[in-house]
Amino acid sequence: MMHNYYENEFSQFWIRNDILFFKYKPKSVINLKAAQRIVADRIQLQNEIAYPIFCDIRGIVDSDKAARDYLAQSGSILTKAVSLVGHQSVSLTITSFYLKICKPSVPTKLFTDESAALAFLEEYI
After folding, report:
1. What's 108's DSSP letter?
2. Which of 4, 9, 13, 77 has the fewest C-beta atoms lying within 10 Å of its C-beta?
3. What is the pTM of this model?
């Protein structure tokens, strides 16, 4: 395994310029078991160092409530801030609803523009 890159069946992670990039693979369906695996793999890659996280959620086609709750809580471990990048569509509606209801424990914002998402994370590096 490369030191700063990891991949599982749901996602890819890599660290560049002190930001952890996280990309869901196309057509990902996230249940609680998948969410637990994703968080465990990300934490292992980080090697106990907290990072701002650029999370590309455009590959997710569905997720269940248990997975969303788990990601809102345990998904914030070793994170300084999170940029979620999504489509201008239903996923944005669902995600903004999720941010209001689940209230992640670190600064988390939703973007459709990658450069704006990266700019938001700059202050947390």
Report:
1. E
2. 9
3. 0.86
